[in-house]
Amino acid sequence: KMFGSQDDPDAALNPEALFNLPCKVEKLIIQGNTRTKKELIERELRAALEARTHESLALELGKARRSLEDLDVFRSSLFEVDVGSATSDSVNINLHVQEKGAHTVSTSTSVIGGEGCMELAWVCRNILGGAEQIRSTVLVGHEQSNALKLDLVKPYAFDSYNLHLRLFHIGQNFSKTSGYKDLREGLIISASQAQSPHLFSYELCKRSVEAASVTSKEPDADSSWKSALQHTFVDDSRDDPLLPSVGRFIRSAFEITGWFGGRYFWRHQLEGQLHVPVASRTSLSLFGTLGMLQALSGHKPFVSDRFFVGGPLSL
């Protein structure tokens, strides 16, 4: 009855015929959005509101639910489709959402480059009702590495593009393997579309490299500026990002520097994973990375830009 099967007796017995029945969304009812603007939710449901069959409606509602989850402001979302009152094929969509808290504080531990690290993060959500976020992260490693990051995220800042601004202060200690300490301070501005594998960024930062011992001497182990346009492509079909058993992961990062100062070069780094099940609860995993660096206009790349064991861009 919900999908109008009273007009087609065969549809009540045949699910495929039911999905092919025409429909037209008459009304959208949203409940639970105390801080989130209704216009933001309606934007994620735009394709579902234009569906003309029950099959396309079900598919678009599934996509809309994933898009709502990607906003990171809802703890849960539930769709209910009921019959409308305008015509025999009209339906109403009822959306029940549960918003996450305005503030979240979390801690975690990780191993980065063989160094144990502890991270403390604070997130402030939905500041203006448009799923905006402010994130602050502090990371401290047992080898004196440290990081301080401040992120501002604004969905749909430019039409369909999301804006991400990051200010960072990162210090990494590579003295055990390369004899250097690396310090970076600057900002990154990124733009991307939801569900798109492409990310476009501009990075402006100051890098300082300090020799950890008198035997570690580098002609340009001082400081330099970096101004780079970057493009990142990610293709991820893994079943689990932490412990994958099947699927692939490809990440391609390309950048060209020297736009507003600093040294001129282009660099491309490619990272790949392949996970293939070979037996019950057993899978074969292959990992690989490849880096390419080319200096331009006779400029020698700074030590922080080169690939070497223990460096910021270890392969």
From TrEMBL:
Question: According to the lineage, what is the superkingdom?
Answer: Eukaryota
Q: How does it sit in the membrane?
A: Multi-pass membrane protein
Cite the Bacterial surface antigen (D15) domain residue spans from the record.
126-314
Q: Does the keyword Membrane apply?
A: yes
Q: Which Gene3D superfamilies match?
A: membrane protein fhac (3.10.20.310), membrane protein fhac: a member of the omp85/tpsb transporter family (2.40.160.50)
Alphabetically ordered keywords of this record: Membrane, Transmembrane, Transmembrane beta strand
What Gene Ontology terms describe where this protein resides (cellular component)?
A: mitochondrial outer membrane
KW Transmembrane (keyword) present: yes
Q: Which Pfam families did the record assign? A: Omp85
Coiled-coil stretches noted in the UniProt entry, renumbered to this chain:
none
Family membership noted in the UniProt record: Belongs to the SAM50/omp85 family.
Name the chain's protein: Bacterial surface antigen (D15) domain-containing protein
